[in-house]
Amino acid sequence: MNPVLIEVLRGGTVESRHAGALAIVDASGAVHTALGDIERPIFPRSAVKLLQALPLVASGAAGAFGLTDEELALACASHSGEPIHVETAAGVLAKLGLDAGALECGTQWPSREPVLRAMAARGEVATPLHNNCSGKHGGFVCLACLMARNAGAEPAEFARGYVAADHPVMREVSAALSAATGVDVEQAPRGIDGCSIPTFALPLRALALAFARAGTGQCLPAGHARAARRLREAVAAAPFMVGGTDRFDTRVMQAFGERLFCKIGAEGVYCAALPELGLGVALKIDDGAARAAEAAMAAVAQALLKTEDDVLRGYSHLVLRNWRGTEVGALRPAAGLDSV
């Protein structure tokens, strides 16, 4: 059974406990910290978007189509669907001579409520550009367009169906995941992600290894190492694109820049790279609670970076308030995280 990582207090009494597992690994594969079962395969979901974007840069597609820092950061994003996110995703497609119809991520309303309410008041409808994965999918389409150019094919036709596991784009993405994690993902349990691309169940130890490699470039193919550095630089330059207003990933990377890359995934997953320490982090909250995953990631980052940063502490010791604004409780790291 995995240890409790985060406790939820109401008043001074523990109301809920969130168990989970945590792996911290260096680029050689040496384990720095292991809590719980770090060998059980889990679906990392959106936490691996940086890894999925490696072929976009390594192939030369990002350079060929002149993608900016903002556009590259959006390729690594689970954004809130705010206007700047939508405009940036549309801008990538415009560079390719395409529109939102090229995206196969599906239509999703913005997750940021004021934006959603404003759209509804204006009578607007959501499009695939509002999908939190539209930047990642724009990157996939960009890669497909370069492949089409090299093959003498029509770009829109070549890109069609890029979400399928056997499409050339997804084969490149899967190969990048395999190279970074050291796991043959084609042999791993497979599902379909919320945005329709394949998702593979991988051990936390392998995911942490991948992010240690992405943070240092060590043990990655040369092209992927350069791509990882370029993507981390882009995210550090434009962290708002990765999440949005009041989002954990944006706020933390605004505070720490290139010292910390972190990315949430659905169902309580977090992955991170700490380049200056040469470490990668992967954690999973068993019950899938996102706020517990954020609290655990904040506590781990505080410990590893040896900082009492207010942004991180605001998540690791999140104050809970009711609808009147009255303080009613808090989150805190459990004793299981002390070993970090």
From TrEMBL:
<dbReference type="InterPro" id="IPR010349">
    <property type="entry name" value="Asparaginase_II"/>
</dbReference>
<dbReference type="Pfam" id="PF06089">
    <property type="entry name" value="Asparaginase_II"/>
</dbReference>
<protein>
    <submittedName>
        <fullName>L-asparaginase II</fullName>
    </submittedName>
</protein>
